[in-house]
Amino acid sequence: MSQTYNFFATISRMKYIERWALMRNSRPENLSEHSLEVAMIAHLLCTIGNVRYGRTLDADKAALIGIYHDATEIITGDMPTPVKYYNAEIKSAYKEVESVAAKRLLSKLPEDLVPVYTEIFFKGEDEKEQYMRRLVKAADKLSALIKCIEEERAGNSEFSTAKASTQKALLQMSRELPEIRDFMEEFLPPYGNTLDELTL
Q1: What pLDDT digit, counting tens, does each position of 106-161 carry?
Q2: Helices (H) and strands (E) in the chain, counts
Q3: Domains of the chain
Q4: Taking burial as the number of CB atoms within 10 A of a residue's CB, which of 14, 82, 168, 185 is the most buried?
Q5: Burial label, 126 (beta-carbon count in 10 A; 0-12, 13-18, 19+)
Q6: Helix or strand or coil: residue 172?
C-alpha cells in the first residue's frame, strides 16, 4: 500500500478559518474566499505590470502565492493585524511562527514535491520575484479594503477605521507600485454594487 500525505487535506481546512474575528461582520469571510480573491488580484497586478510598465513578472506564480499566502493560519490561526504589527519584536516573532508553520505544512508533502512548494511558500532572492511578492502583499491589502467597502455598503460602520488605515497603507505602497493605483482607479469603484448594477 502506498504512503498517503496530509498536505492538501490540511490546506482544504482554510474554509474553516474565519477572518476579522474581532469585528462584527454583516457577512463572515473565510480564508479560502480571501485567498481566491488575493490570487485573482495578484495575477491582475502582475499582468498590469507586464502590459503597461514593461515588467516580466510571473503572474501565474503570483496567483499561486496568493492562494497559499495565508495557509499557515490553518496552524497559527488568524492573528489580528493590530497585534501582529504592534511592534518590531512581535512582528519578528510572528514571522518566525509563520516560518515554522510553513515548514510543518511542507513536511506533509512527498519529498520529491517539497522543492516545488517551497518556492511558493518562501521568498527567493531574485529582485523580480521580490517585486512580484510585493504585489501579492498589495493584493492582500486590496482584498481587505474590498471587505471594508462591502461591509460599509451593507450598513456596518464597524470597518470604517480599518478602511481608512488600509487606504492609507495602499496609497503609500502605490508610490512605488503603480499597478496598485491602476487597480484602485479602474477596478475598485464597482465593488459593493448590486448584481443589477454590475450587469447593466
Answers
A1: 999 999 999 999 999 998 889 999 999 999 999 999 999 999 999 999 999 999 99
A2: 11, 0
A3: 7-194 (1.10.3210.10)
A4: 14
A5: exposed
A6: helix
